[in-house]
Amino acid sequence: MRDRAVAPRRYAPGFSLIELMVVVAIIGIIASIALPSYNEHVRKSRRAAGAACAAAMAQGMERYYTTALRYTGHPAAATLSARCDPDALQFYTMNVDNVGAKTYRVTAAPRSGTPQAGDSCGTLSITQAGAKAPTTAGCW
């Protein structure tokens, strides 16, 4: 009988389980770094929208003062917030308070139960003198 030459063993193409697990681990590490950064970026953009809404409401108050020479009797906060981006109103509660003949304060408070509630800046406010709070860098 003739000895047959043994053919070299062929490996099936594809990935081994270890290679697949290494890729999954790398993706997990990248996601754990990128996700908090992404969430903070989204929170900052929502904060900017809330600040823009507060500024638009303050402009509405100033327009009213131009014609009436007082802030009392101003349009309701709901009327003023119609100038705002609807997406900002999903994450911020807008209010006009401390209204006097010569004073007012517009506040944008993060809504509880939304991702914006954990914002480090908290409630944004602007007065008739243009004083903005909080004064922390990056909040306005």
Can you walk me through this structure?
It is a single chain. The protein has about 140 residues and is an alpha+beta fold. It is about 45% helix and about 15% strand. It has helices at about 15-70, 75-80, 85-90, and strands at about 90-95, 105-110, 125, 130-135. A four-stranded antiparallel beta sheet has the order 1-2-3-4. The longest helix is centred in the N-terminal third of the chain and has 52 residues, at about 15-70. The model has no long low-confidence stretch (mean pLDDT about 90).
Blueprint of the fold:
Blueprint: H1 17-68, H2 77-80, H3 86-91, E1 92-97, E2 105-110, E3 124-127, E4 132-133
Antiparallel strand pairs: 1-2, 2-3, 3-4
Give the averaged pLDDT, no decimals.
Answer: 89
The general outline is rod-shaped
Uncertain ranges:
none
- As a whole number of angstroms, the C-alpha radius of gyration is 29 Å
- Tell me about the largest β-sheet: 4 strands, antiparallel
Strand-pairing-aware structural class: alpha+beta
Order of helices and strands: HHHEEEE
What's the number of helices?
3
Describe the strand arrangement of the main beta sheet, using strand numbers. Answer: 1-2-3-4
Number of strands: 4
Amino- and carboxy-terminal Cα gap: 90 Å
Share in helix: 40-55%
Range of strand content = 5-15%
Organism: Luteimonas composti
Transmembrane segments: 20-38
Keywords: Membrane, Transmembrane, Transmembrane helix
Pfam family, one: N_methyl
